Amino acid sequence: MEIETKCLHEGYKPGNGEPLALPIYQSTTYTYDSTEHIGKLFDLTAPGHMYSRISNPTGAYVEEKLAALEGGVGCLLTTSGQAASFMSLFNILSAGDSFIAASKIYGGTVNLFAVTMKRMGIECIFIDEDDDEETLQKAFKPNTKAVFAETLANPALSVCDIEKLARVAHKNGVPLIIDNTFPTPIFCRPIEWGADIVVHSTTKYIDGHAIQVGGAIIDSGNFDWGNGNYPSLTEPDESYHGLRYTESFGRAAYITKARVQLTRDLGVYPPAQAAFYTDLGLQTLPVRMQRHAENAMRVAEFLNAHPSVHYVNYPGLKTDRYYELAMKYLPKGQSGVMSFSIKGGREGAVRFMDRLQLANNVVHVADVRTCVLHPASATHRQLTSEQLAAAGIDEALIRLSVGLENVDDIIADLAAAF
Ligand SMILES: *Cc1c(COP(=O)(O)O)cnc(C)c1O
Q: Which one has a higher pLDDT value, 389 or 268?
């Protein structure tokens, strides 16, 4: 099946007389005929749902679909993108370990990595992912256990060279984890380029309608966890009578552990209703992504030619520094998000934003409606002018998430505000 078909037909496959729409299994618990069977569930030797903190049939169908879309052996849904990013790493790292992360990533992820995970004794080494392999190699320490980056960074809109990062990570015996939130599997499937684990904030384009926060982790099944670096996967887990994940679950060792150990203990599994909304978004994702990208391209060209605009960051523009990488990794579209700097500085940006009629001024991106955000007044408000400059954020920068309205209306709104 092609990806458009998979978005509709992977996962839940109704049988004769069954509901066509994915049912919402509103149950915390599951009933079995024998105590022996329940014992097997707890030993992880029989398949089945135990308790909805760990899995749920509605969620399981959505997981099957997402695994198929990204080309992985398994998927785990989480209550948010933040939970997915955290668990993707904490599944294989412990106090005393370090990992490498691209500098151009989502601000919430930076807080998680640099502040909260540091309190757990896990060090994040930030790198410039645009550096060459030799420079990147120097960042590795003997205790480095993973590399993390975003395909299309939020809000920098830089495109990551996934093949390069995968080569460096694998040379050091560690997996590459890619946050594929902005492109979605419609525009990029990082596993095909060598990524080992993919994470998503499904809150963005996958949901797309600003109704459900959620996340997902997809396991390629390709990484060799038996290389000596990952004892938590190869050594006995005392909470399951000494079971070894690699031995019992083979290629699905990582994603199984993330569910039966971490999700069990941290309690970050989404409710059935949330999984249902995520699935609803997935069904129309290919159509929406194509239109987002088409509208964004038109808007980027309009902004690029406008005399009140300093510069536009959108990797679909031929003049963009990431255009070549975009043509390699995102040839079918570069999503609907861009940023641009307006002449007139910080005040000019605020005045422009307040004059927009159609675009929503929100702390959100990747929505069916066009949204704008002024990072210097919102997400990066605490920073001084000097800190903003160091973080590469221009005070006159506006992030624009192009929606599915008629593109002429979007452009007319922008033109009127200018
Ligand atoms: C929003 C976002 C996250 C965090 O996801 P939540 O669902 O808000 O927790 C992670 N990565 C990227 C790229 C994002 O845009």
A: 268
- Using the mean position of ligand 1's atoms as its centre, give its distance from the Cα of residue 220 in Å: 21
Across-strand partners of 250? none
Name the token pair of 300: 């980027």
The answer to whether 98 and 148 are in contact (CB under 8 A) is no
Atom 2 in ligand 1: residue holding the nearest Cα: 201
DSSP assignment string, 340-404? EEETTHHHHHHHHHHH-SSSEE-S--S-SS-EEE-TTTTTTTTS-HHHHHHTT--TTEEEEE--S
- Relative to beta strand 197-201, strand 215-219 is antiparallel
Q: Check: CB of residue 333 under 8 Å from CB of residue 187.
A: yes
Cα dist. 372→69, 331, 351, 375, 379 in Å? 29, 25, 13, 10, 12
Q: At 114, list the tokens.
A: 């640099």
Measured from the Cα of 153, ligand 1's closest atom is 13
Q: Which ligand 1 atom minimizes the distance to the CA of 181?
A: 13
CA 369 to ligand 1 center in whole angstroms: 18
Q: What's the gap in Å between 69 CA and the centre of ligand 1?
A: 19
For ligand 1, say whether the CB of 172 is within 6 Å of any of its atoms.
Answer: no
* Residue 178 parent element (H or E): strand 176-179
Residue 51: phi and psi, rounded to 5, are -160, 140
And the tokens for 268?
């970050």
- pTM for the structure as a whole: 0.97
Query: Does residue 187 register a pLDDT over 70?
Result: yes
State how far the Cα of 81 lies from the Cα of 108, in Å rounded to an integer: 10
Task: Give 307-362 pLDDT, tens digit per residue.
Answer: 999 999 999 999 999 999 999 999 999 999 999 999 999 999 999 999 999 999 88
Ligand 1 pocket test, candidate residues 77, 188, 204, 277, most atoms within 8 A of CB:
204
